[in-house]
Amino acid sequence: ILISGYLVIIIIFQVYIIEVTDGEHKWTVKHRYSDFHDLHEKLTAEKKVDRRLLPPKKMLGKNSKSLVERRQKELELYLQTLLQQFPQATPTPLASFLHFHLYEINGITAALAEELFHKGEQLLQAGEVFSLRPLQLYSISQQLRLAKPTCCNGDAKTDLGHILDFTCRLRYLKMSGTRGPVGTSNIQESSLPFDLSVFKSLLQIEISECSSQQIQGLSSLRSSLATLSMHHSTETMMSILVPEASEFSQWEAEGAESGCPVTAVIPVWRNLTTLDMSHNSICTIDNSVKLIRKVEFLDLSYNQLSTVENLQHLYNLVHVDLSYNSLRVLEAAHTRLGNIKTLSLAGNQLEQLTGLTKLYSLVNLDLSHNQLAQLEEIRNIGSLPCLEKLNLSNNPMCIIPDYRTKVLAQFGDRAAEVCLDGKVTTEKELDTVEVLKAIQKAKEVKDRMSSGDKKVCSVTLNLSDQFIWFNCQYL
């Protein structure tokens, strides 16, 4: 409500630009004279204003500069008079005319409350994802702090209670902020704090384009949340998973045994099974992961990770996405990743695969867009018993002649079970793999004989008929 606000009107081609100020927030609204007339008709119909208050519609020489300036001042006085006449509860037509429903706290909450009054129950029953803007939740949080009635304009449909009832029962929420100012205002959503503690039953939340500093009350969702997605919002996992950590010098996760004295025991995320923190600026996997023991799906793609740490605390991991980070080496991955089934390392700078040799449960491995140049590196994953899907596309080794068959040959008898780069292995490729395996075996025999008994080994290959004949004689 613009109690101490002011209005400035500038006219351009008979369109009046109204600048509204509410505390630190400003925005502009464009209206023609006909819009003022429609507003006045609504207000007089409700018997709230004097019909003579609005400047007359018709004037002689209405396009002259002096008369235009005169009308501008009269319309400014008209709006100022209306705001002074209704200091506590702005009439709905006037609030809508000044776009309070888009930029002003009371107007925003009133508009949301009315929407939920009509559609809230239907949305909850449908179980759909509900979208909110940070500005809307900021307005709710601010209004809850004010010592004012929850319905200030007398319309029961706009009561704040409709919002609180809805947020208490909502299960799926999406919050998307904006870069830059909102609409025609100077409001920067990334600077507006908002409180998530009004949500009591959330199972899933997705937040994007919000600073971690403005998010309050996220820890109140630890007992209910199953899926947490956070994008373009943080530089650390700690600030999201343990926001209260900055208050304590030493803390430990609930239920963990610690040999050191702690100043706080932090509750764990009891039902969180999916954590998606892709597209952030995270540099390290810190020990905040101790609080998410039940996580099965972890997405940390498109961050700035150079090492993989602390994931040994996540005993239930099944799917891990570390693509498009800054990983150069991944040593002893099994000690950190455990019995995972899916691992994406695409878009890093890996040159070696020695650290992947003991990921025995791995089914799907994406190594595309790395720096793998030597076919010998495939031997490190060729003995993985469960591997079925392997993506090596866009690596330097892909330009090697007969690249596919040479890679498949590293899997020995399992070559037929491996889908390479999204393509199923063909019979022709399998035939060639058998030839390569025979050549490799002959080479191994020759190498053994050269270091032991002298042996002459001749190998005849008829590749057209896929026939192989060995003749070995001891001397």
Structural notes for this entry:
The protein has 475 residues and is an alpha/beta fold. Among the domains are: 7-98, Phox-like domain (PX Domain, 2-Layer Sandwich); 327-425, Ribonuclease Inhibitor (Leucine-rich repeat, LRR (right-handed beta-alpha superhelix)); 434-474, no CATH class. 28% of the residues lie in helices and 18% in strands. It contains 12 helices and 20 strands. It has helices at 33-45, 65-85, 92-97, 100-103, 105-126, 134-145, 161-169, 238-241, 334-337, 379-382, 403-409, 427-451, and strands spanning 7-12, 15-22, 25-31, 130-132, 172-176, 194-195, 204-208, 215-216, 227-231, 251-253, 264-266, 274-276, 297-299, 319-321, 342-344, 364-366, 389-391, 419-420, 455-462, 467-474. The strands form 5 sheets. The protein has an 11-stranded parallel β-sheet. A 3-stranded antiparallel β-sheet has the order 1-2-3. The protein has a two-stranded parallel sheet with strand order 6-8. A hairpin with a 4-residue loop joins strand 19 and strand 20 (467-474).
